[in-house]
Amino acid sequence: MLTVTTRVTGVPASPSSDAAAVKPISTTNSPFPLEPTNRRRLLHAAVSLSAAAITLTLPAQIAEARGLFQMPPFRLINRYYLVRAGESEYEDMGIINTNPVAKTSVDNGLSEKGKKQTVKAALKLKAMGACDDGCWIWPSITQRAYQAAEVIAAVNGISRSYIVPEYSFLDARGLGGYEGRSLEVVSEVYASDTVSPRNKPPPIDDGTPSESVEDVFVRVTQLMSILETQYSGETVIIVSPDSDNLTVLQAGLVGLDLRRHHELSFEPGEVRFVDINSIPAYKQPASAVYKCLNPPSCT
């Protein structure tokens, strides 16, 4: 004999209510006895309905999943402006300084020329209406980038509480053995980049990383993944201490071969709006070798 228990829903749990709510039903006494075959059919129907319900809800769940960011992106949730900070004291002296240990030092701050470049950048953002409806400013914690963010906030009437310092993903590209040398030798780095995005500058033992274009690409992709997950429909101003973070990022967004990132070079204090409509339509040369739809694998 099969015994089925039923519970009346909505009744407060108590010994007395349980005794009244739970009643054994005998299938032999029931006017509709459940045969084994019928029970199997009912179980099969219940499982089928559950599977169908899960199948129907999966697309909506997948559509809402925004944590996995790929380059080039299918779409962007937010509006982005890319800004290179003005010239630093080290750049004014013509010296390469990319060691993250010194990124908050005064010498990594804006030079007098860099301050003027930054004010122009802030005014350009204002003219572009970047923060008319509010904005978030994401600068590297590097001294010159954070100083630039403060200037941008002041000129555009944005509270400093909307400045979000980035502690690692926006560090200036580590140039290893070129550290402390003249800025003129950076051309050697870019010549190496055109051969392979995996080529690294020569190493050094002072703590300065030797980063390839691919290394930078990983960092900026992680940054975009955070921004596209954390915000929705917002305006974000990304402030980098150097050009390479921004050129690699823009190359990834438009699907440009990363070996060509330097062609998108940012001057100190330069501002660019990321036009979402331009992302899938980069006008590459006839040779498809310059197009990269699966960065950093662009061979």
UniProtKB/TrEMBL annotation:
Q: Which SUPFAM superfamilies match?
A: Phosphoglycerate mutase-like
In residue numbers, the region (Disordered) covers 1-24
**Which species expresses this protein natively?**
Linum tenue
List compositional bias (Low complexity) regions by residue number.
Answer: 12-21
Coiled coil (UniProt feature): none
Protein name listed in UniProt: Phosphoglycerate mutase family protein
Gene3D superfamilies referenced in this protein's UniProt entry, alphabetically = Phosphoglycerate mutase-like
Instruction: Look up the domain of life of the source.
Output: Eukaryota
